[in-house]
Structure formats: structure tokens, C-alpha cells
Design goal:
Elements: H1 8-24, H2 34-40, H3 42-52, H4 57-66, H5 71-82, E1 100-105, H6 131-134, H7 156-160, H8 189-197, H9 201-212, E2 220-236, E3 241-257, E4 270-277, H10 281-293, H11 311-317, H12 320-328, H13 335-365
Antiparallel strand pairs: 1-2, 2-3, 3-4
Helix pairs in contact: 2-4, 3-4, 3-5, 4-5, 8-10, 9-10
Length: 366
């Protein structure tokens, strides 16, 4: 795209070679392997898989290596690769109630049915730099625990027994596929959730934070946050039934939100929902808050004019690949456009100067 620049393709080739050299860095330092990135930078890998809409830890690790750690560039690489893959069909909806939870907490119930499982989390760390890691010190192994294999019921199901929380609303009969069809407005909740799931974590976080600060009046509790692996099944037409084809790690968040009721609905709690590839707690909680804010109309609430309540604003600006493309295209050659605007400004300045001189001459004559 820089062929108009002096030097043409040779300059581009040299830029690519320099980029590869910068990516590698000091050759006296051992090169990172894909396995090292996958195992030791797993949260970055999870983000690339989630926002790239492709669950493959090895490919996500490769993209991170190729992009020099620029996660948005890595997401772009994964999205581009994803478009080359054949599509054999759709999997069955995963059953998160059957998740073998590595982490499962609730901020609404101390004694949650099924128990609280803290799992691997930064929540209780002191956020102090660990210089043992700089010295390549060995990390103490966690106590050996029996893996959880039993199904863990969703906590909000127990609130339904008292009839004080809304029944989970049905999604669209035929959910749209955001990766195959362009989004249109108004969008169904299924499409909104897809868009939020693959949206930029920072943007979704900012929107969620705005709801907590009063821009949407969205006071939420984390009813349940769970992380674990679930089996993925796909129906095989030749067999006539579904078979398990693998498993994926997911983070699921269900929030409990206050709701004063409407003319047709008594006061009760309402829900927000987030589901993301990998261990992505911050993203799933933020997603649930924004999901709830976007439901104002179906719940008969007032639109307070908050950004997080504006479906078109949120969904049109949450995709970091689209945002990056539009943002970064302005650094490409725009010589013709700029020259036309430059001539226009010069012309306007000349006309303004001539008008000022003419008015000054008239005042002098008077």
C-alpha cells in the first residue's frame, strides 16, 4: 500500500526485514517458543482467542509471537486466518452447568450451593513485584487437589425458586452469526452477546465502568463467576446424533441487578450475562454489565442517554479490528486529498485577506 512512496516495493521489503529483526530482538537471548507463550502467557493467549473468535491456543501463541506482543495485531492475524478455514457446521449449545470448574465464586451467597472454589486468581495477591521471577526462581507448587469432575449447578437457579429473579429470557430462535452476516440494528440479544464477546476488552471494560458510575443506573452483584472446561458436541448428519469433538475452557459470569419493576412486571432482580473463551474474568464481568445496560428497552426502563445503553454506539465501536483499520489507515498516503484541502485553505485565506484589505481601503476613504 506504500507503492507511491519513493523506493516502492524495495522499501516495503526492507521495512519487513527490519520488522522481523526487531521482532527477534537480541539474538544472544534465547528465542521464545510457542509452547512457552502458550503456557506462561495464557491470559494473553485467552484474549487473542476470544477476540479473534478462534479457539486454538497454539495459533494464538504463534500470533502473539509474530506480532511482537501487540495483542490487537495478534487478534487481526487470527481473524484473517480464520477466514481461510472451511466451515463444517455448528456445534450444539454448550452446557455450562456441566462445567468442571477450576474457579467458581459468588459475591451474593457466602455458602453457595456446590461451594466456593477460589482457583487461580490475582484477587488476593498484594500486587508487589516478585523479583524471584527475574532471577528465574522456582515457583512453589500448589497443593495437590482432586480435580472437580461433578456438575456444578448455577447459583441463580436457586433464586428462581423464590420467584424473585426474572426467568432467563429466550434468545432468538435462529441466532444470527456475526462472523458471516453484517450486524444490523436493532440487533437481537444473541448477536449483541456475540459482538460483546469478541469486542475489545478495554472498550467493554470502559462501558461497564461507566454503568457503575451512574451512566445507566446499573447496580450489579456478581451472582456467579465460573471458569472451567466444557465438552463441545456436534451433530453428525451421517450418524443422526451428536458426538463430542473436543472441549474448550470458558469463563461465564451471571450478574444480579436491581429492578424496580414496570406496569406489567413486579419488582424483581434481573440478569446480565457474559461468556468468553479462556480465563477472562474482567471481560466476562464487563460483558455482563453492558449486556444488562443494553436490555433497558425490553425491561421497560427509561433510556437515560448513557453511552452503554446505546446499542448502535456500543456494538459499532467495540470491535478493535475495525477500529484499528479505520484509525491506522490515516497514516497511509493521502497526498491528493491533502493537496486539495491545502489549496482550498490557501484560496479561503487569500479571499479573506482581499476582503480585509478592501474593507480597510473603504474605511480609509471615508
Amino acid at each position: 500500500m506504500y507503492v507511491a512512496v519513493k523506493g516502492g516495493e524495495r522499501a516495503i521489503d526492507n521495512a519487513h526485514a527490519w520488522l522481523a529483526e526487531e521482532r527477534r530482538g537480541d539474538t544472544s537471548v534465547a528465542e521464545l517458543s510457542i509452547a512457552q507463550i502458550r503456557e506462561q502467557m495464557s491470559l494473553a493467549v485467552n484474549r487473542v482467542m476470544a477476540e479473534g473468535s478462534l479457539y486454538d491456543p497454539d495459533l494464538a501463541a504463534l500470533a502473539i509471537k509474530q506480532s511482537r506482543g501487540d495483542l490487537i495485531e495478534a487478534i487481526f492475524l487470527i481473524r484473517a486466518y480464520r477466514t481461510t478455514l472451511p466451515r463444517f457446521g455448528y456445534s450444539e449449545p454448550v452446557d455450562t452447568g456441566a462445567m468442571a470448574c477450576d474457579r467458581r465464586i459468588s459475591a451474593t451467597f457466602k455458602d453457595a450451593p456446590g461451594g466456593q472454589v477460589l482457583g487461580p486468581t490475582f484477587d488476593y495477591t498484594h500486587r508487589l513485584l516478585d523479583f524471584k521471577l527475574a532471577a528465574d526462581g522456582e515457583v512453589a507448587e500448589a497443593p495437590t487437589a482432586e480435580p472437580r469432575t461433578e456438575e456444578t449447578p448455577h447459583i441463580l437457579e436457586f433464586l428462581q425458586g423464590e420467584n424473585i429473579i426474572e426467568q432467563e429470557p429466550e434468545l432468538d430462535d435462529e441466532p444470527g452469526d456475526l462472523t458471516r452476516e453484517p450486524i444490523s440494528f436493532p440487533a437481537g440479544r444473541a448477536v449483541r452477546l456475540q459482538s460483546l464477546s469478541r469486542g475489545d476488552e478495554g472498550f467493554i471494560l470502559g462501558m461497564a465502568y461507566s454503568t457503575q458510575r451512574g451512566y445507566a443506573r446499573n447496580h450489579a452483584f456478581v451472582g456467579e463467576l465460573r471458569i472451567g472446561k466444557v465438552p463441545v458436541e456436534m451433530e453428525i448428519p451421517e450418524l443422526g446424533f451428536a458426538i463430542e469433538i473436543g472441549e474448550v475452557e470458558l469463563t461465564e459470569c451471571e450478574t444480579v441487578n436491581q429492578f424496580k419493576g414496570s406496569k406489567t412486571v413486579p419488582p424483581q432482580f434481573t440478569r446480565g450475562y457474559g461468556l468468553v473463551f479462556g480465563q477472562s474474568e474482567r471481560k466476562s464481568i464487563a460483558m455482563a454489565l453492558v449486556d444488562r445496560a443494553l436490555r433497558w428497552e425490553e425491561l421497560g426502563e427509561d433510556n437515560l442517554g448513557a453511552a452503554a445503553q446505546d446499542e448502535e454506539f456500543v456494538l459499532s465501536h467495540s470491535d478493535n479490528i475495525q477500529a484499528t483499520g479505520f484509525l491506522e489507515h490515516i497514516k497511509l498516503p493521502h497526498y491528493v486529498d491533502f493537496q486539495s484541502e491545502l489549496e482550498l485553505v490557501r484560496k479561503l485565506r487569500r479571499e479573506a485577506q482581499e476582503l480585509a484589505e478592501d474593507m480597510a481601503a473603504r474605511e480609509a476613504a471615508e
